Amino acid sequence: MKFRIASMLAAWALCCFQGSAVAAETRTAQEFMLNNGMKIIVREDRRAPTVAHMIWYKAGSMDEQNGTTGLAHALEHMMFKGTKTLKPGEFSQRVAALGGRENAFTSKDYTAYFQQIEKSKLESVMSLEAERMVNLKFDKDEFAREIRVVMEERRWRTEDQPIPQVYELLNATAFIAHPYHHPIVGWMADLQSMTVQDAKNWYDRWYAPNNAVMVVTGDVDAKQVFKLAQKHFGKIPRKAVPTTRPQEEPEQRGMRRVVVKAPAENPYVVLAFKVPALRDVEKDDESHALDVLAAILDGYDNARLNAKLVRTDKVANSVGAGYSNVARGPVTFLLDGTPANGTTTEQLEKLLRAEVERIAKEGVSEQELKRVKAQLVAGQIYKRDSIFGQAMEIGVMEMSGLSHTKIDRVIEKLRAVTAEQVQAVAQKYFGDEALTVATLVPLPLSEKKAAPPPKGLRH
């Protein structure tokens, strides 16, 4: 997956993590439920004496309202600013003293907190997470400092960066009614008017054991993890968590276009087609076929887009395709590229679409399909190479409304995708009706104001 598509996916989660490359094998996770409604999922992996401990809250930017965008992310920052028993910054200091690392990330669909730690220190970090689930402090001065950090983060990551500006406007144009319209970090005006009481209200509304999932992977005993969870989280009372009302995006009835003018080295274009998300692993065969189609276009070094438009025809400096089908809300299939000298963004747009149209008309050979599916399945399996990667995979599935028990079934369904199914989705979903196109028109770099990253940035 190329840089621009990666930028889009990164824009859907403000996060920071990395994993080690170790051969993984399939393991079955065990699931428990505390009496207060908190789900505990444990996958034992004995390859190294380490543990990934994650707490996922089903509350992301899609749960915000106009005027308070950015709240989920702002609250994530406040989770490190002290509790009844912890001073501001002490949470991170304690994890570091234990020899671990920790961070958090906010997405459109959820907010998650994690620690990677030596296995004997698991109870210590579990105790810390339980403390801030129920005893977070909201100091007005701490909030004032932290919201300034968030505003600087927005300037540094979006307002001063041309590609993130493109994707922010793309989402705001593609989604009219659905809250995916809003950026995770929030609109600047909402950040400027946000109060510490807004953050506390968000915490009181969503941060409850019955709206959280604990995921633990690594060198642990599942039953012992459950006992520790009961000890530290079991006494936290459940809350009446609000029921999210259906927020359906109206049917798009024609192509939408948007242009961003910003200091940049090169022009750029991205096309977003509205396509089905994965809601039912067993029934949603079109979603699996779209996954394979993305891999055919851009799943490996010599995939179709790069081979044709960059290497052979030399009409683009870079091209890409992306489809992330696991989400609480609607999803898009992306095509993007930076044109080479002598090629316009309008021409590249047509050339990108022509590659999908070629599959729609001619299909794909069994040989190519077999090769691409092998690459795609390998990529799915490689996500489990690290202890942390396994925890991420489980958490994302659970937060998106899909059971972690279906993870292996997804791979089986990908293996079963036929050439006819790939051709059918290429024919069905890539017309003008549900397409949004965003184009970057570069301005001179002399107009760009260099700014250092904000102090206190966690991600």
UniProtKB/TrEMBL annotation:
Record family assignment: Belongs to the peptidase M16 family.
Domain (Peptidase M16 C-terminal): residue spans on this chain: 193-376
Matching Gene3D superfamilies: Metalloenzyme, LuxS/M16 peptidase-like
Keyword Repeat set for record: no
Stored InterPro entries: Metalloenz_LuxS/M16, Pept_M16_N, Peptidase_M16, Peptidase_M16_C
Protein name per its UniProtKB record: Pitrilysin family protein
PANTHER family: NARDILYSIN, PROTEIN YHJJ
Domain called Peptidase M16 N-terminal: residue spans: 40-185
